[in-house]
Amino acid sequence: MRKTWTLKGLGLMLVAVSSACQSNSNDEVAHEDRANALSAGAVVPQVFLAKAKGNLKFVEGGSFHMGDFGPVHSPEKLAYSSDADNKPLHKVTLDSFSMSAYKITYEDHDAYAQATGKPKVGMVALKRGKRHPRIAASLTWQEARDYCQWLGQQLNLPMDLPTEAQWEYAARNRGQFWVVGTDNGKMELGRNTRTFDERVDYAEKHGLTELEPSLPLGTLPPNPIGLYDMMTEGQEWVLDWYAKDYYAHSPGKNPAGPASGTRKVVRSSRGGGGDNLIMGDGLSITRRNMLPDPRQERSLEGLSDPSKGFTSRCVVNRSVPVGQ
Question: Is residue 277 part of a domain?
Fold first, then answer.
């Protein structure tokens, strides 16, 4: 998945993932028995639901040009990326929706696991001391979608994973020509983008072995819609199946990807220092793709937690703000 990008016109080189615990079958059975017994009378805490509902930010719909807008925006009228799958630039119109301000955290998913009897995710990270409750939970595509749909049932709202078009529209502050999904469409190291040194300092402070750990969410400024960490801290599953040439024949109204496929689109990027990434995977137009269950991905074979770095956030597919 790692690629090298050249952002022509900006003069930047753009360099461009916790999973359920892999235990033996006896441990898994015992865990399920305990979880099922617990869930029999489980009640979802109202504090959790109120917080989740309050974190839903309204995104007014509209039209925008989706894809690599470099040829119409950069001073040299050159593409911002070398990938073919974010071309051609094409007009898309979206209905209004609401989106979670934050990616799904371990704290969020633990509440879901407690209520449903599903196993907790990211237990390998826990063993290594890297399962902070406010870090983005590492999930397969189905785990992420199950969480969003369950949350929608609890809140009586039509919730799901965002479509790719919804994600890009929101990351670009309602479709503006923003290269990155920060608070102003630019990267300003040390203010709205973490430096490599900041990540090293965090790792040392918390006894982590990684030099570029995922960090707790929401500590940098949100974009104007109120969405945090759209550029980094975890690649985000979206609803769409992936097709390299999809943009060439995408419908113009509320596109939701191909009808079928083998791989899913992921957006955003893993945690990393902006001065190192600068930020190929973090571009608002960048498309990546992955098997829905990263444990089946050959390039990730042998990793203790292949889902590491994959997460998502939820949307409400309703054209009025939540609460109205």
Answer: yes
CB count in 10 Å sphere of residue 76: 10
Give the rounded distance of the alpha carbon of 195 from its chain centre. Answer: 20
Average pLDDT over residues 163-184: 98
The tokens for 167 are: 């994600």
User: How sure is the predictor about 297, in pLDDT bands with cuts at 50, 70 and 90?
Assistant: confident
Residue 324: inside a domain, yes or no? no
End-to-end CA, the chain: 42
Residue-wise pLDDT tens digits, 112-146: 999 999 999 988 766 556 678 888 999 999 999 99
Q: Return the amino acid letter for 281.
A: D
Amino acid at 287: R
Domain that holds residue 53: 4-316
Residue 323 lies in a domain: no
Structure tokens at 13: 């080189």
Domain count for the chain, please give it.
Answer: 1
Q: Which CATH number goes with the domain that contains 65?
A: 3.90.1580.10
As a whole number of angstroms, the distance between CA 53 and CA 71 comes to 39
Look-up of token digits 């290269």: 179
Read off the pLDDT of residues 191-218 as tens digits, 9 standing for 90 and up.
998 887 887 787 677 665 555 557 789 9
Distances (CA, A) of 12 to 267, 274, 277: 20, 12, 10
For 5-38, write each residue's pLDDT tens digit.
333 334 333 333 333 333 333 343 333 433 343 3
235: helix, coil or strand? strand
* 191 within 8 A of 184, measured Cβ to Cβ: no
On whether residue 227 sits in a domain, the answer given is yes
Exposed e or buried b for every residue in 264-282, given b needs 16+ CB within 10 A?
bbbbbbbbbbbbebbbbbb
Rounded-to-integer distance, Cα 315 and Cα 183, Å:
20
